[in-house]
Specification:
Helix content is about 65%, strand content about 0%. The protein is mainly α. The protein has a single domain (about 5-20, about 30-180), classed as Globin-like (Orthogonal Bundle). The longest helix is centred in the last third of the chain and has 24 residues, at about 155-180. This is Globin domain-containing protein. Keywords: Heme, Iron, Metal-binding, Oxygen transport, Transport. Pfam families: Globin.
Length: about 180
């Protein structure tokens, strides 16, 4: 990346941060709600975040087999073989890290919005070409697994908060698909 590209990227990021700060479509969460999201994420990820991420993708592939076809590096693999696919494992790690970044930045969402927009653009027709209808599936899979792993401590309130947060992530990524594609 040359200096002009870096400058353009920084200007775009600054623009998106300011646009979000002045937006009426901000993600509205109370301090208590943010804490619930952070604690449930930390507990869910536990000591092995890679395994938790892998489990999310396994569940998504199981429930929505059509999603596996968009991952060329996983489309013909059985579940047990997937963890031997370094590209899939890298992708899972990056997805888990991005969700973690969103959770970590709940008090400063304007700092994460440019990354989500860019991520959405990379998942558009000129990038990975992921149908926007697929975006909710990983969130659904994550919430199911959180309920299983956290049991009664994952309440309906937690589920509603995670649904709200995922919808914000999805909406921002779709906006990025449309804007930066």
């Amino acid at each position: 990346m040359d200096l002009a590209q870096v400058s353009e990227s920084m200007i775009c990021e600054l623009y998106e941060r300011v646009r979000y700060q002045n937006s009426s479509d901000k993600l509205a969460l109370t301090v208590n709600e943010k804490q619930k999201l952070k604690l449930s994420w930390t507990t869910f990820m536990g000591a092995n975040p890679t395994q938790a991420g892998l489990d999310m993708f396994y569940r998504m592939f199981e429930k929505y087999p059509q999603t596996q076809s968009v991952f060329s590096f996983a489309s013909t693999k059985a579940e047990g073989q997937m963890q031997d696919t370094s590209r899939l494992m890298l992708h899972i790690t990056m997805v888990s890290k991005m969700i973690g970044n969103v959770v970590d930045d709940l008090d400063n969402m304007e700092s994460i919005v440019p990354s989500l927009l860019s991520l959405g653009g990379r998942h558009g027709t000129n990038g990975y070409n992921i149908p926007k209808d697929f975006f909710p599936f990983l969130g659904e899979s994550q919430r199911e697994l959180m309920k299983e792993k956290l049991g009664d401590s994952f309440t309906d309130d937690h589920n509603a908060l995670w649904t709200k947060l995922y919808q914000f992530i999805i909406d921002t990524m779709i906006e990025g698909q449309e804007k930066y594609n």
